[in-house]
């Protein structure tokens, strides 16, 4: 478990050693957070609703040129999906909605291109380390979460995604952003007894605010 937190921190802060010594490059550290609207996609899953959660974490923007920057991040990200009743069946074959909650430490490695001053587009890979997994069979009320032990989990501990987004950075350091991440690999374990060889991938919209120091 300690390695799940150590690896992302090393990725983020080792970049300082690589880039921060140049007189022309001034890395900016920052904090960011916001809303997640998540679900799962794939050929082997039926109708799902978006699950609302949040993300929160740190980033470092490293200018490479006037218009191009590299931005590694370390984020806590709440993800998952809501299985909904349609035609008396859903992903869990229950009579009501079910929230399946996945918590990750996500490490996006974003390339940012400034189209004009302040306005940017971004893209890059994202590496996710699962830290918690819960299921709520009564999603309309509080207190029904059941944590799933790692030995009983059907979900992989590691996930890889592609992230695409855009945002605007103000002169005072504040920024607004929107980002979409889509899984490149299935989140289901290869030896899963319940889900078999299902093709199920994370899909998350993130809307956030940030502040650079």
Q: Give the N-terminus to C-terminus distance in angstroms.
A: 30 Å
Low-confidence stretches: 15-24
Mean pLDDT: 84
Instruction: Summarize the amount of helix as a percent range.
Output: under 10%
CATH topology-level name: Porin
The strand line-up of the biggest sheet is 1-3-4-5-6-8-9-10
Q: What share of the residues does DSSP label as strand, in percent?
A: over 45%
Number of helices: 1
Number of strands: 10
Strand-pairing-aware structural class: mainly beta
Largest sheet: 8 strands, antiparallel, barrel
Would you identify the CATH architecture?
Beta Barrel
- Principal-axis shape equals elongated
Give the tally of structural domains. Answer: 1
Radius of gyration: 19 Å
CATH C-level = Mainly Beta
Question: What's the SSE pattern?
Answer: HEEEEEEEEEE
Protein architecture, described:
With 213 residues, the protein is mainly β. The chain has a single domain, classed as Porin (Beta Barrel), CATH 2.40.160.20. It is built from 1 helix and 10 strands. Strands 1-3-4-5-6-8-9-10 form an 8-stranded antiparallel barrel. The longest helix is centred in the first third of the chain and has 18 residues, at 2-19. The protein is elongated, with a radius of gyration of 19 Å.
């Amino acid at each position: 478990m300690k390695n799940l937190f150590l690896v992302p921190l090393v990725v983020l802060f080792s970049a300082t050693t690589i880039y921060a010594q140049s007189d022309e490059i001034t890395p900016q550290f920052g904090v960011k957070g916001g809303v997640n609207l998540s679900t799962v996609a794939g050929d082997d899953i039926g109708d799902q609703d978006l699950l609302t959660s949040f993300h929160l974490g740190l980033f470092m923007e490293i200018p490479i040129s006037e218009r191009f920057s590299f931005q590694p991040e370390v984020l806590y990200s709440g993800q998952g999906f809501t299985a909904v009743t349609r035609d008396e069946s859903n992903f869990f074959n229950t009579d009501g909605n079910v929230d399946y909650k996945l918590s990750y430490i996500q490490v996006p490695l974003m390339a940012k291109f400034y189209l004009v001053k302040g306005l940017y587009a971004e893209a890059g890979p994202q590496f996710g380390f699962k830290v918690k997994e819960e299921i709520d069979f009564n999603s309309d009320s509080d207190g029904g979460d059941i944590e799933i032990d790692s030995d009983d989990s059907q979900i992989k501990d590691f996930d890889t995604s592609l992230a695409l987004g855009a945002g605007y950075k103000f002169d005072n350091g504040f920024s607004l952003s929107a980002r979409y991440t889509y899984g490149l690999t299935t989140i289901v374990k290869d030896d899963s007894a319940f889900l078999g060889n299902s093709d199920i991938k994370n899909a998350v919209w993130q809307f956030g605010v940030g502040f650079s120091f």
